[in-house]
Amino acid sequence: MYGLLKNKRGIIFGAVDERSIAWHVALACAEEGATFVLTNTEAACKIGNISQLVEAKGWTIIPCDATNVDELQKLFIMSMDILGGPVDFVLHSVAQSVNLRRHRTYENLNYEYFLKTIDISTLSLHKILQTGINMNAISESGSIVTLSYIASERYVEGYGDMGDAKAMLESVVRQLGATYGIKKKIRVNAISQSFIPTSASAQWDT
Fold this sequence. Notes:
By secondary structure, the protein is α/β, with parallel strands linked by helices. It has 7 helices and 6 strands, in the order E-H-E-H-H-E-H-E-H-H-E-H-E.
């Protein structure tokens, strides 16, 4: 441990269980001295064992639907109260495709499901940043990180409408990174990790 995140406050979106990337990010952040809250939808908190994992660590989890602006506002208010001020970092590890979960191929999409994929996997990042920054809940020079995938720029068999969602996600990163970088010195970045077996990736038929 080097104390790289000592005195830094954050919100980590998307942990479901011990296989989640967001959970391992939380473990690393804690090791480096950060304080933070975790969040996911109320349904995800019940489906996975994240609530038990968080309780065992003595951390805090706040149920929140990242696609709902009212819930995001409440999340930021509660987080600032618990952590003692605006957050310095946010991890956006939020993605889901109902089309993939229901085994619908790209040439046979349900368009309502497709719009939900975009809302959950892409627009949620925009909503989180716009809401947090408008509330002065994200510190100047803060850091925002989201998770992308190589399917944003090339065809990956079986990835379906998530490829579109990741391509749009990277566009949101570029747009908000430039805008908030100039206005607030806030960094917005996407990391494209290799394939990792998680509860979320299990919906993808490879």
